[in-house]
Design a protein that fits this description.
The complex is a heterodimer of chains A (766) and B (248).
Chain A lengths: L1 H8 L1 H19 L17 H12 L5 E7 L6 H15 L4 E5 L5 E6 L2 E6 L10 H13 L14 E8 L5 H15 L5 E4 L1 H35 L2 H24 L11 H23 L6 H33 L3 H22 L1 H8 L8 H47 L17 H13 L3 E8 L5 H15 L5 E4 L1 H11 L10 H11 L3 H4 L8 E8 L5 H18 L6 E6 H35 L2 H24 L11 H9 L1 H17 L2 H28 L7 H32 L20
Antiparallel strand pairs in A: 1-5, 1-6, 2-5, 3-4, 7-9, 7-10, 8-9
Helix pairs in contact in A: 1-10, 2-8, 2-12, 6-7, 7-8, 7-9, 7-24, 8-9, 8-11, 9-10, 9-11, 9-24, 10-11, 10-20, 10-22, 13-21, 13-24, 13-25, 15-19, 16-17, 19-20, 20-21, 20-22, 21-22, 21-25, 22-25, 23-24, 24-25
Chain B lengths: L1 H14 L12 H12 L4 E11 L5 E11 L3 E8 L7 E5 L3 E6 L4 E5 L15 H4 L4 H4 E8 L3 E8 L9 E7 L5 E7 L5 E13 L2 E11 L4 E12 L10 H4 L2
Antiparallel strand pairs in B: 1-2, 1-13, 2-3, 3-4, 4-5, 5-6, 7-8, 8-9, 9-10, 10-11, 11-12, 12-13
The chains are: A alpha+beta (766), B alpha+beta (248).
Chain lengths: 766, 248
């Protein structure tokens, strides 16, 4: 009575405070930004992240934006002009530290007694005639510095590579680059590739998804609510509760200076799908009591007395599912997701038990059902009860078959579970046929990929011995199947040495290297290769987006093993990094996250169930449907080739948190009925007609809510939506079939010990 | 970085020593001619220069060079320090002829003339910046501002293909035609570099900027040039401006 009295007494204060908090949240929500940079999802202490950030700091940026100009022949005057124009335009973009293309890359050549260290193409050397173009083509394709790096072997694609300064707004820069292309060469074959454009696309999609999916999700819930209640308050109140909890969660995110990520952008959808159930229960109970003559306080008291505990149980188990990510994940973004989703669920729980009753208490009392609809409902109910009775008989007859089928399904799923693929290829996040996929394919075919990898070599870079070690490692990297075009300052020094007439080798003395350095120092390309104090150099190479993390792992191990056995560690130390290795760490973190968070969530839920059932055996039986569900999800992932990635890693714990609600409510109801009737079959029939029905409706609403994710433009989110849909159906159906079969098969019902002093509020919540 | 020094030196040589002029009402071309006269006034000069190169993180490197110049178009710069660059020399002669000497190789190589817009050895100076020129020969001036103490001239290249700049803006002192600030704009009309000249002192009959700095706007890189020793009109031998001297 206390809570009810409190709510009635302070209802205006509750509503006012809610409005104030919501307005504050709206203000903060507008300041939220999107972070689609995967490398920031790993902790900064991660070895590969630290090394990449170091490169970013030392060498003016870690990420590159690649613009690929395609033509039947790149060495046509107009194509070169196009590249020249774009190069100069990109250079002007604030935040672009270096632009490297055919038209401004360093060129070292000798002729007679001359040495030329200049740009490959500038105003003075611009090829005017066809013959000059042909000469240039032959020259460029003859030099490894250009061929396969900025011009494809077949001279059909040339690259303009923009390095983005540390701390610059990559999304804005990618957008500006796209605008320049769009405004000047709209219909030409120009493609945007590289990590920065991937970020731009993901960012755009996240923002679009957030708007579109939220709209569709809200629309669906409005339809479901209207179909259920056929009243405006029936639609608006749950909608209000959900909207408030979404806004509070977004405001909370913003206050904590968190950004919307590929993972956290799902939270509003989760809150709509899951959180709406709480206020629906409250509202349903009010509707049920609307015909009584109780006063407001009593009515609120009755409602809260009935629904608080089950809503609390549902909320707490769901929150546990989410919070398990905090303890189980190495990825900051998944931890954030866990905390924020749990907070969101908590907000939905609080608003449904405070704000909704406060508002309802101010609205006029009314009966929502007409007599005709009641009659109609009664006949429907009888029909449903008949089906349930048949169903109970079916279960009773086929209990062992049901259990055996479940075992077979489990075994099959365990088999497919072992075939689950892991995906770290970011381009696979985009649908086939999208520009980013096309550009990525082009880069893969013509340049063997667009992901840079780096070896940071520390030592006296002007010392020929160190240069020899760099060359050794570079040659080894070149021999690796998945890597191409490794280059470093050694290439330039050898070329310079050749120009000085000493052959294409590393000079034999440090003095000579220092002299050559005098000529190279300050060039943009050189500044991307060696630090200003000459104590460190980068070997850079490219890799395609590789889907299989084992392949990257193998490469990493190969390089490390080569370094250990072949590189003189007394004069150089080497660190390896780059997006493929970040992806590899991400993959390991995802797998670890999956195992740990799921383990923690299972353990927690299992403990809760033991406490709730007051029996170990009871606890064990309660988790059977969810364990089967988890096996089915992972089995489906294996069978349908849905890879484990940043989004699908969430499915296990979310499913556990939401799916466990079904057995909780089912067992509670069944126990209560059994203790009253001591007849397992009739208890089952009553449970199925009441809780069972509620479970079916809940499966429908929550599954529909999550299936909205199918409309996402990011493949992993689509997969997540489908998998959670499967979860809900599997968890619900196994609760309604397997669980009763086990009850009937067990006969003794040994775990169903009577509750003491628990005569109230153990009603179903569904 | 050394080239930084060289360029600095060469550039400063273009401007720094000069004679006082009158300050009557003059046309833009008259003013520019006076600037040329002031800049190219000494018959010859010998300068010891300390270059301090400051990168965008505040890291500093120092270089020392000695520079000889005769008239407006013969120039030799030799590096004295650091040890790794000691002995490297650059010789600049009329008609875009430039030689480079690398002591470790004991070889001199001619540097191609069409690389004017290439940055020279880590500096923000290009070969073009290092050329000894008469502004009035290469640029068409326009007086865009006449203040009490300064003229501001807009210089547009007569032949755009011969320069990497679209324009220069010179701030010239009214009392002595000393250009104290030069802004360099690239082909897309963006300000790329600024040369500032300070500590202007008289050495003999010529004015010298003892401290000047070139700032690369885009890279936030600064090269400071301090003249530690200056001698003018000492009758430098023609022998200095040869490949043989470069290799010594």
């Amino acid at each position: 009575m206390n809570l009810a009295k409190f709510i009635i007494r302070f209802r205006f204060a509750i509503i006012t405070l809610t409005i104030i908090f919501t307005l504050i949240s709206v203000y903060f929500s507008t300041q939220l930004t999107i972070n689609s940079d995967f490398s920031s999802y790993l902790p900064e202490s991660d070895e590969a992240v630290r090394a990449l950030n170091y490169i970013s700091h030392q060498y003016s940026g870690k990420h590159i934006a690649i613009v690929a100009v395609k033509s039947k022949d790149i060495f046509l005057r107009e194509t070169i002009e196009k590249i020249q124009f774009l190069t100069s335009q990109f250079k002007r973009i604030d935040g672009v530290s270096y632009v490297t293309s055919l038209t401004n890359i360093i060129d070292i050549r000798k002729s007679n007694d001359f040495i030329e260290i200049s740009k490959l193409i500038d105003e003075r050397t611009f090829p005017i005639t066809d013959e000059k173009c042909k000469e240039l083509k032959e020259y460029v394709l003859s030099k490894m510095l250009y061929r396969g790096r900025i011009v494809s072997d077949d001279a059909s694609v040339a690259l303009i590579v923009c390095r983005l300064r540390e701390g610059s707004d990559e999304i804005r820069i990618a957008k500006e680059i796209k605008n320049i292309i769009e405004n000047n060469f709209k219909n030409d074959s120009i493609y945007c590739a590289g990590y920065s454009f991937n970020l731009f696309e993901v960012n755009t999609i996240i923002a679009d998804d957030l708007r579109t999916l939220l709209f569709i999700s809200l629309l669906i819930i409005v339809l479901v609510l209207y179909a259920s209640y056929k009243t405006i308050r029936g639609v608006l109140l749950p909608l209000l509760s959900v909207s408030i909890s979404i806004l509070w969660t977004l405001g909370f995110m913003s206050i904590l200076k968190l950004q919307i990520s590929l993972v956290t952008n799902v939270i509003p959808i989760i809150l709509i799908a899951v959180g709406s159930a709480y206020s629906i229960h409250v509202l349903s109970k009010f509707e049920e009591l609307s015909e009584s003559n109780d006063d407001r306080v009593l009515q609120v008291h009755k409602v809260l007395n009935e629904v608080t505990k089950p809503i609390f149980l549902a909320a707490i188990t769901t929150m546990v599912g989410f919070i398990s990510f905090v303890f189980g994940s190495y990825l900051s973004v998944i931890k954030e997701f866990g905390i924020l989703s749990a907070v969101g669920i908590f907000f939905a729980f609080v608003t449904s038990l405070t704000v909704i009753p406060s508002i309802i208490s101010l609205l006029p009392m009314k009966c929502s059902y007409s007599s005709t609809s009641t009659t109609k409902n009664s006949s429907l109910l009888m029909y449903f009860e008949n089906i349930v009775l048949d169903f109970v008989e079916f279960i009773s007859r086929n209990k062992s078959t049901l259990i055996k089928v479940s075992i077979v399904i489990s075994v099959l799923c365990i088999y497919f579970l072992s075939t689950i693929e892991r995906s770290v290829d970011m381009t696979k996040y985009f649908k086939e046929g999208t520009d980013i996929r096309i550009a990525s394919e082009l880069m893969r075919n013509k340049f063997n990929g667009d992901l840079p990898i780096y070896c940071i070599v520390r030592g006296d870079i002007l010392n020929p011995r160190v240069l020899h070690e760099i060359k050794k490692l570079q040659e080894f990297i070149k021999s690796q199947r998945t890597v191409s075009n490794p280059y470093s300052v050694v290439d330039l020094i050898e070329e310079m040495n050749d120009v000085m007439g000493e052959g294409r080798t590393i000079p034999d003395s440090k003095d000579k290297v220092e002299n050559l350095w005098f000529l190279l120092e300050g060039d943009e390309l050189v500044r991307q290769m060696v630090n200003s104090s000459k104590t460190e150099a980068l070997i850079q190479a490219t890799m395609p987006s590789i889907d299989d993390p084992h392949e990257i792992d193998l490469l990493s191990k190969n390089i490390h093993s080569f370094i250990t056995t072949n590189i003189d560690s007394s004069i150089v130390t080497i660190t390896i990094t780059g997006m493929p290795f970040i992806n590899l760490h991400m993959d390991k973190a995802i797998v670890q996250s999956q195992i740990q968070s799921l383990g923690i969530a299972l353990l927690f839920v299992f403990t809760c169930m033991i406490v709730l059932q007051r029996s170990f055996k009871g606890g064990l039986i309660s988790v059977i449907p969810i364990v089967l569900t988890l096996l089915i999800i992972f089995g489906c992932m294996g069978f349908f080739n849905i890879p484990l990635n940043l989004a699908t890693v969430l499915v296990g714990s979310i499913s556990l948190g939401i799916g466990i609600d079904y057995p909780i409510h089912f067992i509670n109801r069944y126990r209560r009925e059994y203790l009253q009737t001591h007849n397992p079959l009739s208890s089952l029939a009553i449970t199925l007609t009441t809780t069972g029905k509620a479970i079916l409706i809940n499966i429908l609403t929550v599954t529909t809510g999550f299936l909205v994710l199918v409309f996402s433009n990011l493949v992993p989110l689509q997969n997540l939506g489908i998998l959670i849909g499967i979860t809900m159906v599997s968890s619900g159906l196994s609760t309604l079939t397997l669980l009763p079969a086990i009850f009937v098969a067990m006969k003794t019902y040994i775990f169903l010990r009577p509750f003491q002093n628990k005569k109230t509020n153990k009603d179903l919540i569904m | 970085m050394k080239q930084h020094l060289i360029s600095f030196i060469l550039i400063s040589l273009l401007y720094h020593p000069f004679l006082f002029g009158d300050n009557e009402q003059l046309s833009a071309l008259d003013i520019l001619s006076k600037v040329d006269e002031v800049v190219n006034a000494p018959l010859d000069q010998e300068l010891k220069i300390k270059l301090i190169l400051i990168d965008n993180r505040g890291g500093q490197e120092e270089r020392e060079i000695i520079m000889y110049q005769k008239g407006s178009n013969k120039r030799v710069a030799k590096f004295l320090s650091p040890a790794s660059q000691r002995g490297i020399g650059v010789l600049s002669l009329p008609n875009d002829v430039m030689y480079l000497y690398l002591p470790a190789f004991k070889k001199t190589r001619r540097i191609a003339s069409h690389i004017k817009n290439t940055r020279f050895a880590g500096t923000d100076f290009t070969y073009e910046d290092m050329e000894a020129i008469r502004y009035s020969d290469r640029y068409t001036p326009e007086l865009i501002k006449h203040e009490q103490e300064f003229y501001t001239l807009l210089l547009k290249p007569k032949d755009v293909s011969k320069t990497e700049y679209s324009k220069l803006i010179l701030r010239v002192r009214v009392d002595n035609y000393f250009p104290i600030r030069i802004e360099y704009y690239d082909k897309s009309e963006q300000l790329v570099k600024v040369l500032r000249r300070e500590k202007i002192e008289k050495v003999g009959k010529y004015l010298v900027s003892k401290e000047s700095e070139m700032e690369n706007i885009r890279d936030k890189h600064i090269s400071k040039m301090l003249i530690t020793e200056a001698k003018f009109d000492t009758g430098l031998s023609e022998e200095i401006f040869t490949e043989r001297f470069l290799m010594r």
